[in-house]
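Worked example

This section walks through a single chain of length 210. The input is the sequence exactly as stored; nothing has been trimmed or padded.
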Amino acid sequence: MERIRLLLLIGYVLVRESLSRQLGLEPDLEIVAACGVPDEGLEVIGRSPVDVVLLDCDAVGDDAVQFISTTRQAGFRGRILVLASERDSASLFRLLQAGASGALLKHSPLDSLPKAIRQVAAGEAWVDLSLLPMLAGRIVDNEDRNLRSMLTKREQEVLDRVLDGLTNKGIALQLGISEGAAKAILREVFRKTGVRTRSQLVRAALTDPM
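Given that input, the structure is written out below as tokens.
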């Protein structure tokens, strides 16, 4: 079994130690290092192979965007999963634009964390469903944006429901169309936006320039 190598950049010692123990029990996860400040995290990335960084907003504060940019400039090609609280929601849009692969709320069920780590490690995006309406609102409010201007009204309706976290079946039920039709429309959205998966579509929509 190929293991996912993790760097935990968590501000609070007790939280850091607790997550290290919990994640260490997962057979496919390996804790490379656990630290509490950005400089230590950058040092680890510079000397050790890391697949996913679990980035606690409390550990980096207002420097989260800068941290992500610095890791990319240093050649880091792994994924970054942001661990955020409700008060961080306003900054999540900028973090996703900077290159984070997803965001998980701290009050999410503990079993969501390994799932999110595996998903971003596989190249997918992860955004808590409770965050999508807030993030999607940044897109829906501006109809002149490049991504949306490429789509027909029906395709935009499908996009909106993807951003709401609906499955193809859920989209079909809401729009009153067949599941096959929903899939066909979504494939056309993929073609026009140049993506291959739903998570890439979410990422493209959330990071489309303001």
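What to look for: The radius of gyration is 18 Å.
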